[in-house]
Amino acid sequence: MKKLCFVHLCAVGALTMVGCIAGADEVASDDSDLHVKPGDEENLAHLIVQLPSGACQLPAACAHPVAYPTFNVEGASYAAPKLGEDARLKPGNYSVVVEYAAMPLTLAAKQTRKVTLAVARSKCTALPLPVVPKTDFGSKVSVWNEACPVTMQAAVPKAGYAAFPYVTLLGSDRIFAPGSYTVSLGGKPQTVSLAEGDVKEIPFTRGVVGTVPPLFTTKIAFVDPRENPTVALTALAITSSCPTDAKYQLPLDGAQPVALDAFQSAQCSYTLTVGGRSLALDQTKTNVVNLYRVDVDDVLVQKEDKTSYLAKGTYQLFFAGLKVAGPHPTGTGIDMLPGTYELVINYNTMDGPKTQKQTLTL
N- or C-end of the chain: fewer Cβ atoms within 10 A? Predict the structure, then answer.
């Protein structure tokens, strides 16, 4: 039997009486102990992140296998659930984060929210490249296709990564946080929208970088036959004012007509040099250049007894009073541009030094 204690307060006065009585006549009691059973409930939210229909995680086989479906849930609390797992989270604001892109969402108490990730891959198609014709001198032209983009910029970046809101773009399937993205291709932004549950190819057209300028042609003809060897270091050459351009050098023994092509260039000028003279080439038309031959033999000297011998000497060519070629040894020849020249030949005989002068109009 329990002993029951009571406190009695008098209605008037400060006397307090405390007493205990035993017995069953005044208070009924149970022989068993008191058993308190408290209770409560949780009001968490539930978040399930899953792949869209037709997608699966490797090594499983499906139409759209995903190699590394890694994501996080960040916000009021942090979680790294597996795909399809029921994550219990405190109510509040969250983001489903894939790489540096985020999909914001708000979870209420007792709410079950399913987020279906997007799965996408890039598909790049290259535009045909123009034909680049072969040239003989001048600038070299290259054309190529733009590179397929490998990153996208998320409209909603992961918290703390506003300066680096990028995700990787592959030619194979991978997961994305649903949302809006921007891709730069050829310096032009392109918007890509990925909704929940999307399974799609993102098409890109790889444009052509560079252009093929028009050509101009220089035709060179050798009017006269060559009888003597050509003087070394006097062969025809075409050079450019741009140091990286290719030049053209005609072989010393070359005597066949040539047609030489080059790309037009507003930044560079081209010059034909032959026989000590230069000719600026016009890039707006076909240049037709005729070259004339000057062959100078050794001097035939006749003795007083009517016998003769060949005397070696040198020759020079002057144009408009200026020396343009020589001195070169006799017994050789040189190609020249049209014009009027003074030919000066110097040699020696038993009589001493001699000089001969002739006017040549080519």
Answer: N
